[in-house]
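Q: what sequence does this backbone want?
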């Protein structure tokens, strides 16, 4: 049975607090098996017989909104896809390993395309750099995210599509644990 990771937006941020045990119960009630969460930021690992990530995203979004009372955008990757995302090196190792630098990965529903890529790349600075590969946008921040001149809200607005961000270390840990 395929294993998936759901990256949920708006879980335990902005006043929307959800206990991970409750989130697991909701996923089990949707018919998923082997449900686990990884840190309390909306990363849910589960098994499903479905082969359509789009159908899974829609099912989860509807069920979570009905149960939690607010929209929870959902971005699903198979474990195989996530392993490829974790292995991908969008920037040179010297940049990735520089002191104070953090790599974030934004999960989006579809490849943003060239126009959106160009718009995002117009915000590249000495602090912030971006790279799009497939359905992921890699954001190299050479300072703490709070010190960036490019806040997360501007990220989505510039990209012109919803996204959810994760620290690359979190993505790598999930990929290693479940691959």
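A:
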């Amino acid at each position: 049975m395929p294993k998936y990771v759901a990256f949920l937006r708006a879980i335990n941020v902005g006043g929307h607090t959800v206990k991970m045990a409750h989130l697991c119960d909701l996923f089990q009630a949707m018919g998923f098996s082997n449900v686990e969460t990884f840190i309390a930021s909306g990363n849910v690992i589960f098994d499903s017989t479905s082969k359509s990530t789009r159908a899974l995203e829609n099912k989860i979004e509807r069920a979570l909104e009905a149960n939690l009372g607010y929209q929870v955008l959902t971005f699903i990757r198979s474990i195989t896809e996530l392993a490829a995302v974790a292995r991908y090196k969008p920037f040179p190792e010297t940049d990735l390993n520089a002191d104070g630098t953090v790599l974030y990965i934004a999960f989006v529903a579809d490849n943003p395309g060239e126009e959106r890529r160009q718009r995002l790349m117009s915000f590249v600075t000495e602090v912030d750099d971006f790279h799009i590969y497939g359905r992921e946008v890699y954001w190299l921040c050479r300072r703490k995210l709070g010190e960036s001149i490019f806040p997360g809200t501007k990220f989505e607005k510039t990209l012109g599509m919803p996204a959810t961000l994760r620290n690359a270390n979190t993505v790598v840990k999930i990929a290693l644990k479940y691959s």
